[in-house]
Amino acid sequence: MRIVFCGTPEFAVPSLRTLLAAPDITVAAVVTQPDRPCGRGQSLKAPPVKQVALEAGVHVYQPETIKSESAQDFFRRLAPDAVVIIAYGKIIPASLLDIPPLGWINLHASLLPKYRGAAPIQWAIVRGETRTGLTTMKIDAGLDTGPILLQKEMAIGPDETAVELTARMAQEGAPLVLETLRKLAAGEIVPVEQDHEQATFAPLLKKEHGRILWSQPAQQVYNHMRGMQPWPGAFTRFRGQLCHLWGRPAQIERPVVALPGTLLPQGERLWVACGDATALELDTVHLEGRARVSAAEFLRGVRLRPGEAFES
Could you tell me the pTM of the whole model? Predict the structure, then answer.
Protein backbone atom coordinates (compact mmCIF):
# COMPACT_ATOMS: atom_id res chain seq x y z
CA MET A 1 0.00 0.00 0.00
CA ARG A 2 1.26 3.45 -0.93
CA ILE A 3 0.36 6.23 1.50
CA VAL A 4 0.99 9.87 2.33
CA PHE A 5 1.42 10.69 6.02
CA CYS A 6 0.16 14.03 7.39
CA GLY A 7 1.14 14.99 10.92
CA THR A 8 3.09 17.52 12.95
CA PRO A 9 3.75 16.99 16.70
CA GLU A 10 5.38 14.25 18.77
CA PHE A 11 2.00 12.49 19.14
CA ALA A 12 2.17 11.49 15.45
CA VAL A 13 5.75 10.19 15.56
CA PRO A 14 5.15 6.60 16.84
CA SER A 15 2.59 5.99 14.08
CA LEU A 16 4.94 7.33 11.41
CA ARG A 17 7.80 5.14 12.67
CA THR A 18 5.52 2.09 12.68
CA LEU A 19 4.36 2.72 9.11
CA LEU A 20 7.92 3.34 7.89
CA ALA A 21 8.94 -0.05 9.32
CA ALA A 22 5.98 -1.98 7.89
CA PRO A 23 7.07 -4.15 4.92
CA ASP A 24 3.71 -3.83 3.18
CA ILE A 25 3.48 -0.02 3.48
CA THR A 26 5.32 2.58 1.40
CA VAL A 27 5.31 6.12 2.78
CA ALA A 28 5.57 8.11 -0.44
CA ALA A 29 5.74 11.50 1.30
CA VAL A 30 5.20 13.26 4.60
CA VAL A 31 3.13 16.45 4.83
CA THR A 32 3.67 18.61 7.90
CA GLN A 33 3.41 22.20 9.11
CA PRO A 34 6.15 24.69 8.17
CA ASP A 35 9.10 25.17 10.48
CA ARG A 36 8.23 27.71 13.20
CA PRO A 37 10.31 30.17 15.29
CA CYS A 38 11.07 28.73 18.71
CA GLY A 39 12.78 29.80 21.93
CA ARG A 40 14.35 33.09 22.93
CA GLY A 41 16.40 33.29 19.77
CA GLN A 42 13.32 32.59 17.61
CA SER A 43 15.34 30.24 15.41
CA LEU A 44 13.33 28.02 13.11
CA LYS A 45 12.53 24.56 14.46
CA ALA A 46 11.33 21.62 12.38
CA PRO A 47 8.24 19.71 13.54
CA PRO A 48 9.01 16.31 15.12
CA VAL A 49 7.36 14.49 12.20
CA LYS A 50 9.64 16.24 9.71
CA GLN A 51 12.74 15.21 11.65
CA VAL A 52 11.72 11.54 11.53
CA ALA A 53 10.87 11.73 7.82
CA LEU A 54 14.22 13.26 6.93
CA GLU A 55 16.06 10.60 8.94
CA ALA A 56 14.22 7.97 6.89
CA GLY A 57 14.94 9.72 3.59
CA VAL A 58 11.25 10.42 2.88
CA HIS A 59 10.19 13.47 0.88
CA VAL A 60 8.73 16.24 3.10
CA TYR A 61 6.14 18.76 1.90
CA GLN A 62 5.35 21.79 4.12
CA PRO A 63 2.66 23.97 2.54
CA GLU A 64 1.60 27.15 4.30
CA THR A 65 -1.94 26.15 3.43
CA ILE A 66 -3.21 22.77 2.31
CA LYS A 67 -6.09 24.51 0.50
CA SER A 68 -3.82 25.81 -2.27
CA GLU A 69 -3.84 24.59 -5.87
CA SER A 70 -0.24 23.45 -5.46
CA ALA A 71 -1.26 21.25 -2.52
CA GLN A 72 -4.03 19.70 -4.60
CA ASP A 73 -1.57 19.08 -7.45
CA PHE A 74 0.82 17.44 -4.97
CA PHE A 75 -1.75 14.89 -3.77
CA ARG A 76 -3.13 14.19 -7.26
CA ARG A 77 0.36 13.63 -8.63
CA LEU A 78 1.28 11.18 -5.87
CA ALA A 79 -2.08 9.37 -6.11
CA PRO A 80 -1.74 7.47 -2.81
CA ASP A 81 -3.97 4.54 -1.86
CA ALA A 82 -4.65 6.24 1.48
CA VAL A 83 -3.65 9.31 3.46
CA VAL A 84 -2.97 8.88 7.18
CA ILE A 85 -3.54 12.09 9.12
CA ILE A 86 -2.63 12.46 12.80
CA ALA A 87 -2.59 15.83 14.59
CA TYR A 88 -1.69 17.67 11.40
CA GLY A 89 -3.24 20.89 12.68
CA LYS A 90 -5.24 22.05 9.66
CA ILE A 91 -8.74 21.32 8.32
CA ILE A 92 -8.59 19.27 5.12
CA PRO A 93 -10.60 20.76 2.23
CA ALA A 94 -13.33 18.60 0.70
CA SER A 95 -11.58 18.76 -2.67
CA LEU A 96 -8.79 16.50 -1.35
CA LEU A 97 -10.90 13.89 0.40
CA ASP A 98 -11.77 11.80 -2.66
CA ILE A 99 -8.24 11.52 -4.06
CA PRO A 100 -7.11 8.35 -2.19
CA PRO A 101 -9.36 5.30 -2.89
CA LEU A 102 -9.21 4.19 0.76
CA GLY A 103 -9.76 7.72 2.05
CA TRP A 104 -8.08 9.89 4.67
CA ILE A 105 -7.56 7.83 7.83
CA ASN A 106 -7.34 9.75 11.10
CA LEU A 107 -6.21 8.63 14.56
CA HIS A 108 -8.22 10.53 17.18
CA ALA A 109 -7.45 10.40 20.90
CA SER A 110 -10.94 9.66 22.22
CA LEU A 111 -13.74 7.16 21.83
CA LEU A 112 -15.75 9.05 19.26
CA PRO A 113 -18.29 10.57 19.25
CA LYS A 114 -17.13 11.71 22.73
CA TYR A 115 -14.60 14.54 22.83
CA ARG A 116 -14.53 15.71 19.26
CA GLY A 117 -12.13 18.59 18.77
CA ALA A 118 -8.56 19.71 19.29
CA ALA A 119 -7.89 18.71 22.92
CA PRO A 120 -9.65 15.41 23.70
CA ILE A 121 -7.01 14.12 26.12
CA GLN A 122 -6.93 17.26 28.22
CA TRP A 123 -10.69 17.67 28.50
CA ALA A 124 -11.29 14.00 29.31
CA ILE A 125 -8.99 14.37 32.34
CA VAL A 126 -10.41 17.75 33.36
CA ARG A 127 -13.93 16.33 33.30
CA GLY A 128 -13.00 13.44 35.54
CA GLU A 129 -13.19 10.58 33.03
CA THR A 130 -11.62 7.31 34.18
CA ARG A 131 -11.68 5.69 30.73
CA THR A 132 -10.92 6.97 27.25
CA GLY A 133 -9.59 5.44 24.08
CA LEU A 134 -8.39 5.74 20.51
CA THR A 135 -10.44 5.85 17.33
CA THR A 136 -9.43 5.45 13.71
CA MET A 137 -11.94 7.07 11.40
CA LYS A 138 -12.43 8.26 7.85
CA ILE A 139 -12.19 12.02 7.52
CA ASP A 140 -15.25 13.72 6.07
CA ALA A 141 -16.19 17.38 5.67
CA GLY A 142 -17.12 17.80 9.37
CA LEU A 143 -15.02 18.13 12.53
CA ASP A 144 -14.28 14.56 13.72
CA THR A 145 -17.66 13.44 12.37
CA GLY A 146 -16.54 10.75 9.92
CA PRO A 147 -17.36 7.03 10.15
CA ILE A 148 -15.53 4.95 12.76
CA LEU A 149 -13.15 2.21 11.61
CA LEU A 150 -11.54 0.73 14.75
CA GLN A 151 -11.47 1.68 18.44
CA LYS A 152 -9.39 0.75 21.46
CA GLU A 153 -10.50 1.53 25.02
CA MET A 154 -7.96 2.63 27.65
CA ALA A 155 -8.04 3.45 31.36
CA ILE A 156 -6.96 6.85 32.68
CA GLY A 157 -4.81 6.55 35.81
CA PRO A 158 -6.12 8.41 38.88
CA ASP A 159 -3.00 10.61 38.96
CA GLU A 160 -2.16 10.54 35.24
CA THR A 161 -1.50 13.92 33.64
CA ALA A 162 -2.30 14.97 30.09
CA VAL A 163 1.41 14.76 29.27
CA GLU A 164 1.65 11.17 30.49
CA LEU A 165 -1.59 10.04 28.86
CA THR A 166 -0.67 11.69 25.55
CA ALA A 167 2.62 9.78 25.42
CA ARG A 168 0.90 6.49 26.24
CA MET A 169 -1.87 7.01 23.68
CA ALA A 170 0.65 7.91 20.98
CA GLN A 171 2.42 4.58 21.49
CA GLU A 172 -0.77 2.51 21.62
CA GLY A 173 -2.25 4.31 18.63
CA ALA A 174 0.54 3.30 16.25
CA PRO A 175 -0.40 -0.42 15.92
CA LEU A 176 -4.07 0.56 15.66
CA VAL A 177 -3.30 2.72 12.61
CA LEU A 178 -1.38 -0.10 10.94
CA GLU A 179 -4.15 -2.61 11.70
CA THR A 180 -6.72 -0.21 10.25
CA LEU A 181 -4.82 0.20 6.98
CA ARG A 182 -4.32 -3.53 6.54
CA LYS A 183 -7.93 -4.39 7.30
CA LEU A 184 -9.23 -1.63 5.04
CA ALA A 185 -7.11 -2.90 2.16
CA ALA A 186 -8.40 -6.45 2.78
CA GLY A 187 -12.02 -5.31 2.94
CA GLU A 188 -12.33 -6.46 6.55
CA ILE A 189 -13.70 -3.21 8.03
CA VAL A 190 -17.22 -1.90 7.65
CA PRO A 191 -17.19 1.81 8.63
CA VAL A 192 -19.77 2.66 11.31
CA GLU A 193 -21.51 6.03 11.29
CA GLN A 194 -21.21 7.99 14.54
CA ASP A 195 -24.20 8.69 16.74
CA HIS A 196 -24.05 12.47 16.46
CA GLU A 197 -26.55 12.96 19.29
CA GLN A 198 -23.99 11.48 21.70
CA ALA A 199 -21.22 13.88 20.68
CA THR A 200 -19.30 15.93 23.23
CA PHE A 201 -16.66 18.52 22.43
CA ALA A 202 -13.07 19.22 23.44
CA PRO A 203 -12.24 22.73 22.22
CA LEU A 204 -8.76 24.06 21.55
CA LEU A 205 -7.13 25.13 24.81
CA LYS A 206 -6.81 28.83 25.51
CA LYS A 207 -4.85 30.59 28.24
CA GLU A 208 -7.98 31.32 30.28
CA HIS A 209 -8.86 27.63 30.49
CA GLY A 210 -6.06 27.22 33.03
CA ARG A 211 -7.70 29.42 35.68
CA ILE A 212 -8.57 27.49 38.86
CA LEU A 213 -12.12 27.73 40.16
CA TRP A 214 -11.80 27.30 43.91
CA SER A 215 -15.56 26.89 44.24
CA GLN A 216 -15.15 23.43 42.72
CA PRO A 217 -14.49 20.40 44.99
CA ALA A 218 -10.82 19.52 45.51
CA GLN A 219 -11.01 16.46 43.25
CA GLN A 220 -12.24 18.61 40.35
CA VAL A 221 -9.47 21.13 40.98
CA TYR A 222 -6.97 18.25 40.93
CA ASN A 223 -8.42 16.91 37.66
CA HIS A 224 -8.04 20.40 36.24
CA MET A 225 -4.39 20.53 37.31
CA ARG A 226 -3.73 17.14 35.68
CA GLY A 227 -5.49 18.06 32.46
CA MET A 228 -3.95 21.49 31.93
CA GLN A 229 -0.39 20.15 31.70
CA PRO A 230 1.91 21.29 30.17
CA TRP A 231 0.00 24.32 28.84
CA PRO A 232 -1.65 26.54 29.96
CA GLY A 233 -1.07 25.00 33.41
CA ALA A 234 -3.38 25.50 36.39
CA PHE A 235 -3.12 29.01 37.76
CA THR A 236 -4.66 31.55 40.10
CA ARG A 237 -3.53 34.93 41.42
CA PHE A 238 -1.86 35.71 44.75
CA ARG A 239 -1.45 39.32 45.90
CA GLY A 240 -2.08 40.40 42.32
CA GLN A 241 0.55 38.11 40.80
CA LEU A 242 -0.02 35.17 38.47
CA CYS A 243 0.60 31.95 40.37
CA HIS A 244 0.84 28.43 38.90
CA LEU A 245 0.08 25.61 41.33
CA TRP A 246 0.37 21.86 41.69
CA GLY A 247 -1.17 19.73 44.42
CA ARG A 248 -3.64 16.97 45.26
CA PRO A 249 -6.80 16.52 47.35
CA ALA A 250 -6.02 16.74 51.07
CA GLN A 251 -6.88 13.84 53.35
CA ILE A 252 -9.11 15.50 55.93
CA GLU A 253 -11.05 14.14 58.89
CA ARG A 254 -13.73 16.85 59.02
CA PRO A 255 -15.23 19.38 56.59
CA VAL A 256 -13.21 22.53 55.93
CA VAL A 257 -14.88 25.67 57.26
CA ALA A 258 -13.41 28.45 55.12
CA LEU A 259 -14.25 30.33 51.96
CA PRO A 260 -13.00 28.64 48.76
CA GLY A 261 -9.50 29.83 47.91
CA THR A 262 -8.51 30.50 51.53
CA LEU A 263 -4.93 29.45 52.34
CA LEU A 264 -4.75 27.12 55.35
CA PRO A 265 -1.21 26.48 56.68
CA GLN A 266 -0.74 23.21 58.57
CA GLY A 267 2.80 23.46 59.99
CA GLU A 268 5.02 23.29 56.89
CA ARG A 269 2.14 21.99 54.79
CA LEU A 270 -0.32 24.21 52.95
CA TRP A 271 -3.95 23.52 52.15
CA VAL A 272 -6.37 25.57 50.07
CA ALA A 273 -10.08 25.52 50.85
CA CYS A 274 -12.20 24.29 47.93
CA GLY A 275 -15.88 23.82 47.25
CA ASP A 276 -18.08 21.35 49.14
CA ALA A 277 -15.97 21.87 52.33
CA THR A 278 -12.97 20.07 50.77
CA ALA A 279 -9.31 21.09 50.59
CA LEU A 280 -6.38 20.73 48.21
CA GLU A 281 -2.87 20.23 49.57
CA LEU A 282 -0.29 22.17 47.56
CA ASP A 283 2.98 20.54 46.50
CA THR A 284 4.61 23.38 44.57
CA VAL A 285 3.97 27.06 43.92
CA HIS A 286 5.33 29.14 41.04
CA LEU A 287 4.83 32.87 41.44
CA GLU A 288 5.27 34.99 38.34
CA GLY A 289 8.90 36.07 37.93
CA ARG A 290 10.20 33.73 40.63
CA ALA A 291 11.51 30.18 40.84
CA ARG A 292 9.14 27.27 41.39
CA VAL A 293 9.28 26.29 45.07
CA SER A 294 7.77 23.76 47.45
CA ALA A 295 4.72 24.71 49.48
CA ALA A 296 6.92 24.85 52.61
CA GLU A 297 9.36 27.27 50.92
CA PHE A 298 6.45 29.40 49.75
CA LEU A 299 5.08 29.59 53.30
CA ARG A 300 8.43 30.67 54.71
CA GLY A 301 8.81 33.38 52.07
CA VAL A 302 5.41 35.10 52.01
CA ARG A 303 4.29 35.24 55.68
CA LEU A 304 0.61 34.65 55.20
CA ARG A 305 -1.92 36.87 56.86
CA PRO A 306 -4.85 35.16 58.64
CA GLY A 307 -7.65 34.40 56.17
CA GLU A 308 -5.54 35.30 53.15
CA ALA A 309 -6.81 33.70 49.94
CA PHE A 310 -6.06 33.08 46.31
CA GLU A 311 -8.31 35.04 43.99
CA SER A 312 -11.50 33.11 43.28
Answer: 0.96
